[in-house]
Write a structure and sequence with these properties.
The chain is mainly alpha-helical. The protein is built from 13 helices and two strands; from the N terminus they run ααααααααααββααα. α2 (28-47) runs antiparallel to α4, α6 (118-136) runs parallel beside α8 and α6 (118-136) runs antiparallel to α10 (221-239). The structure holds Phenylacetyl coenzyme A.
């Protein structure tokens, strides 16, 4: 079969909403796009443990500590499913990790912002997990089977995370004036970076058009961002908080909220490694990798021993 006819058959399959599985033929560019997106996504889950991990020892009650610990562990699990899904495309996990540790690979811009108060933990759950769900629910229908299946469980867990974040903020907002002010301050700092999570505007997005044709992405960055704004503004009203956007207003004609411009210069700076915590995040991952060397060696020695013993039995 020629590459042309293989490509046609591949696209037909996608158009019929059939899944592409690891052993199926796929164009190199499709494989490359998936490796890029899934590995960036995996790195985001793992680096994303750092801002919240920062508050585990300072959670204000045992209940809050248990919930936060479980959430951070869930994010580690998401990273693991995603690295596994990525490996089905023929790349080694070690290579992906090296790319993260060397600073070559991207991870979500949002995790380069600091968590200054307990309210930030609420804001991350509510806004960051909220944005993640908005982006990831359509990925459950992604054309690549292993990625789509990994996303189903991830989304269920993210939805619990989103609710625990909202509940933290609701408690603060119903508390003392200082607590409400802390919640407002967290919203002021996390709102715009959360909108940036959806990526550049459609006119500047390099990959969206092709990823939509391949049904990796089902909506554009701007479409998802708008859905997120429309969903979140009424939730802020329930909390009694003000979204830090003076241009925000309901537009009757379109049935959507109109919002002000995003500071794309800030987004670009964070992507180029100049965000408030880029260096700190990378350093923390490098140190964790270094300190985990003995764990990886022990796991490998154990696995080798198991194989040896199973051969003897066999
Ligand atoms: N940050 O052409 P596009 C989470 C890059 S998980 C950094 O629009 P695409 C869970 C993009 O990679 C959060 N880089 O690209 C959690 C590309 O660079 P490249 C992560 C960004 O792929 C919660 C370039 O800009 N979620 O939060 C960002 O079509 C709480 C051009 O962009 C995912 O990864 C950004 N925000 O669309 C964990 C979801 N945006 O590769 C812990 C899966 C764009 O050419 C606590 N990924 N870039 O060098 C996606 O849906 C897509 O990859 C997008 C970007 C939408 C992120």
């Amino acid at each position: 079969m020629t590459t042309e006819s293989l490509t046609r058959r591949f696209q037909d399959k996608i158009d019929q909403e059939l899944k592409i599985e690891p052993k199926d033929w796929m164009p190199d560019a499709y494989r490359k796009t998936l490796i890029r997106q899934i590995s960036q996504h995996a790195h985001s889950e793992v680096v994303g443990m750092l801002p919240e991990g920062n508050w585990i020892t300072r959670a204000p009650s045992l209940r809050r500590k248990v919930a936060l610990l479980a959430k951070v562990q869930d994010e580690a699990g998401h990273g693991l499913y995603l690295y596994s899904a990525c490996e089905t495309l023929g790349i080694r996990r070690e290579t992906l990790i090296e790319e993260l540790l060397s600073g070559k690979a991207k991870y979500s811009s949002i995790f380069n912002y600091p968590t200054l108060t307990w309210a930030d933990i609420g804001a991350i759950g509510w806004l960051v997990d909220g944005a993640a769900i908005m982006n990831q629910v359509p990925l459950c229908r992604c054309s690549y089977g292993p990625y789509a299946r990994a996303m189903v469980r991830v989304c269920k867990e993210e939805s619990f995370h989103q609710r625990q974040g909202f509940e933290i903020l609701l408690t603060l907002c119903q508390g003392a004036a200082d607590q409400k002010a802390m919640a407002q301050d967290a919203l002021d700092r996390w709102w715009w970076p959360s909108l940036m999570m959806f990526g550049p505007s459609d006119k500047d997005s390099i990959h969206t058009a092709q990823s939509m044709r391949w049904k990796i992405k089902r909506f554009t960055n701007d479409e998802l961002r708008q859905k997120f704004i429309d969903m979140t503004v009424p939730q802020a009203e329930v909390l009694g908080l003000t979204i830090p956007d003076p241009e925000l207003q309901w537009d009757e004609a379109s049935g959507h909220y109109h919002s002000g411009p995003i500071d794309w210069e800030e987004f670009g700076q964070v992507l180029r490694g100049n965000g408030p915590c880029n260096a700190e995040r990378l350093e923390a991952r490098q140190r964790a990798h270094q300190e985990g060397t003995w764990v990886r060696e022990a796991a490998q020695a154990y696995a080798a021993k198991q194989i040896e013993e199973s051969k003897k039995v066999g």
